[in-house]
Each structure stands twice: as C-alpha cells, then as structure tokens.
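This part of the workshop introduces the protein records we will be handling. The question running through the whole workshop is how a given chain folds. To make this concrete, we reproduce a full record directly below:
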Amino acid sequence: MSKKKVVVALSGGVDSSVSAYLLKKKGYDVIGLFMKNWHDESVTISKECPWLQDSNDAMLIAQKLGIPFKIIDLSVEYKKRIVDYMFSEYKKGRTPNPDVICNREIKFDVFLKIALSMDADYVATGHYCQKKSFENSIGEQVNSLLSGVDKTKDQSYFLCQINQFQLQKVIFPIGGLKKNEVRKIAKEIGLVTADKKDSQGLCFIGKISLPEFLSQKLKPKEGKIIQIKDELKKLSENLYGKNFDIKLLNELSKKRRYKINEGEVIGAHKGAHFFTIGQRKGLSVGGHSQPLFVINTDVKNNLVYVGEGANHTGLFRRALKIKKGSEKWIRSDLTIDFDQRMDVLVRIRYRQPLQEAIIYKKKEGFFIVFKNHQSSITSGQFAAWYVGEELIGSGVIN
C-alpha cells in the first residue's frame, strides 16, 4: 500500500516545521512548498519577517527532515486576490481581514490546486485548529472545524471562510498541541526554527508598514479629527432572547453616524481611510485624561470622529448585520432558513473570547444580536459563529 502524499505549506516558522516533522513521523510522503507572495520590500519592515530569510529557513527544515522542497511564486494571484481587495476595502472606509481571505483564496484554493496537481492526497498547515469527520445519515462525509487545544493560539477564526471540500483535504498536525509543546519538539529534534519568533502581519509576507503600504494607492489627504463628547446615555435596553422583528434588528445593528457640528475639532489626520473603529494609536492628539479612540470614520468627507475613554458609548453596539452575499457556512447542514434563529457563540476578531449571541435570518438580511454590547464592531472584518468548539459559519460585517 503506497504512502499518502501530503504537501505542507512551509512558511519558515516553527509551527509548519513541526507539522512537517509530525507528518513524516506518521509515515506520510511529505513535500514542503514555500509560497512567495510578495516582491515589493519597500513597505516591508525587513527586520521583522523578510521572505528571503523565511524561505531559507523553510529550505533548511526540508533538508533536516529529508523531504523535497520547492518555492512557488504566487505573487500575481496574491496581488489580484489579496492586495487589490485590501486597497478596495480601505478606500471604502472598511477594514479588511487579509488573513481570512488569504486562507480562502491562496492557501486553500491556489495552493491546494497546485498540491492536487502534484497528486497529493492532502495539504497540511501549521494552524492551531482541529478537524473531525463523520458520516451523516445518508453516508456522506461531513467535516467539522474545531478550535485548537491551545486556546491562547486558536486560529480557527482565520479559516472561517473555507468550505467542506477544502476542509476535507487539509490536515492540522499541531492542532492538538500547545505552543510550548510545539517548541519543545522543535528543540528536541534540532530545528533551526525552534526559537524563532512568531511571524506578524500579512499572511506569508510578514510585517508591513500599513500606512506606507496603503499610501501606494491611497494618497495622504489632510482632514479633521472631531471629538464627540460621550452622550452618557444608557446603552440600548437588554432585549436579548426575544424574537426581534426586522425594524428592531435594523435599529440595533445600525452604525452610529455623526455630523461635523456635533463635536469639536481637536486635530488633523492624513487620511480617514488609514483609521479603523476602536483605533487609539496614530491620532497624535494630546491633552486628555483618557486615551482617545476612533468611534467612526467618514471617508467621503475625510473626517475621523473620536471619543475619550474605552467606555465611550460610541464604541458599543448590541448587534450587527452581515454584508449581503458574504454569509458562508462550513456546515451547510446546520444553516437556518428565513425567519429562523439560532443560539451560537460569536467572535468578531481574532483572539476575542467567544460571545453569546443569537443569529437571525430574514429576507432583508442576516443579523447577529449579542447578549452583551460589543466594542469596536468594524465593517469589513469577519464575524464567525460557533456551536461549542465547532466553527460552523461566518460573514463579513456590514
């Protein structure tokens, strides 16, 4: 019986290195592939994570493990599917999540197709998440995406937009381990990546200077920073658990809008599209007893609205609406129909603790109502919903 062939996305980090080792140890025929997704180093903070160093580390790992190794250039696809998407979203005043899109469009689409063209049975990544499979009542295989054992590193959120076929074809070798256990294995077998810092920033690019990156196409333009005094109003009444009609859902999920005459001009910025809801760095405005937070942006009029303190009511909302057409279910067998609801757990950003919520599907749209008010709900980010430890669906926040 021939060995099952697995192509590992070797990133040059410790997680993918140990993943490759564990697969080989289990008897798989392992091949390492490094994805080169970026050429422009002018916006890369080179000391953090230059692709050349990462590709060299990936090659050394492959040599150490005795597995074939290739570098594949996906920069054309990456620019088209990730970079152009990022510019488009920021231009609209939205804050994209390139890591989620990178997994959906690059690792689990372009990369997966390359692996399958090499007659691979599976691909493998160093994500901290788990997969379980079972047969349903009509004999079909159903794949479940579960949180990683290490709750401080759980990366299931980043895979919230993949589908059943993609999940069927992937192995997560380290999903059942904790980070310290992964580093311990790497040290025991002498991998050069054992003590390497975790990469930061964009998927398979490394850390970039976002303002410099965005200024390639989105030119700096001076505008006003306007402070909105806290309304000191009670946040909306807790109606959690009630069956909301569409009028109330729309009201609760509505984004706060401000007008320039509602506040005081306290400074200037270099472009509203460089800011995101909840941001506190980069405002360069002093003289306040508490930090200032961005509570809204207006890219059309190039205005940034801020509020003082992390408890400013302008930061909080009870509900959100999912962008039309972006709702995706990993478990299509669990989808709800129009006018149905489901109790779930939701996170609206990576590493956020799961929040109790109810999802509602209406003809007018898909809504999430939280048990507790949520800070910094941000258009363009992803909301992912879980049942227990299993991630079952997601969508882009409107």
